[in-house]
Amino acid sequence: MTTPIRTYRAVSTSRLAESPTFSIAVTFLGGLTESQQSAFEHAAYRWTRVIVGALPAADVDGQSIDNIVILAQGVPIHGHGLEGIMGQAGPTHLRAESSSAALLPAKGVMTFDAADLAMMEEGGTLFDVITHEMGHVLGIGTLWADKGLLRDLGTSNPTFVGAGAMQEYGKLLGTGQPTPVPVESTGGTGTAYRHWRRTVFHYELMSSSIAGPGHPLSRMTVASLGDLGYQVDLDAADAYELPDPLTLAQAGVLVPHTAPIDAGAMLPVLPVVLRQPTYVEPQVPGIEGTTEEGRMVISGFQPPPITGGIKRGVKRLEDAQLHVTHESVRPEVVRLINSYIETRERRHTDHFWDVMAEIITIAVGARIADKEPPLNKEEVWDYIDVTAVFWNTWNHPR
Ligand SMILES: [Zn+2]
Q1: How far apart are the C-alpha atoms of 172 and 304, rounded to whole Å?
Q2: 0.70 exceeded by the pTM?
Q3: Please, what are the domains in the chain?
């Protein structure tokens, strides 16, 4: 299919928002039929009814972005040893932490397998699935941990603790008491900790499975966007009530769905955090000189040369037949290493980072291959710290 690249922009017309308002630009890169593109347009329109206030412009790779741009495409994924993969959706670039819209996405991607799109269209779930995945690009599930809004990760009862969503959940419960919102704890990467718990919320749009058309976008989901930092219009939500568990159990719908929307299917995207255009690199005194090797890298001033390390790591994953590609693993490895460098400002040599990149690539790749939750940033940082302590005592050939 050869469709020209075109961009559709949905603009919020809410009476609540002052001009300028929130907008979602969807750039179609190809591989989508007209009706599929129309589902993306309707989904963008749906979200601009609940998110209303404009975000500050962001600079991504020299391009100034109003609010958010989403790249959308259909590609043949199956038949490349990736039968279980439906696609990938999530933010790719987040606004700087120092921005007034800290960490809110500037750019995202939604890539679907062409055959899956056709199947969903036939089954009537296309609009709901696209809307759901666009919700992830906007930050639902994908930014919860980064925003510090999750509690009790790793237990069977993780919860979302944003004030707005807790208040709406209390209303749904009928108690009126703000209550931590149950989050999905089962399923692999892409499902656990990224959705409302399916056994509690069942057919709500952002719970972890989509069984048919017409999933409501609740006030609780809208309020959770407010908790992320968006200006929202709660009254633009759909009517939604908690399902009665007995009725659901009797209807047999609490049996785990064989094909929940993200089951082994939607690969997570690991975004990079942008720097403010006005961001000034911190000046660290006393690091102008070079070491005796002449190879000291001032991290944060200069990206470490980790490409070779990632290549070697991917090679080892390929040798182990783990089916992990450079493209699938690189963004997370870069993100983990950059997050360490930006936060801790530790200085290490090129060689150190090259070797760390190889080790982290293998760890990240194994998680992806096993469909397990992504590596915890803190875990990786500790590991880098520990490695650094021993580094100079190792005898490591170049
Ligand atoms: Zn999802």
Answers
A1: 50
A2: no
A3: 6-267 (3.90.132.10), 284-391 (no CATH)
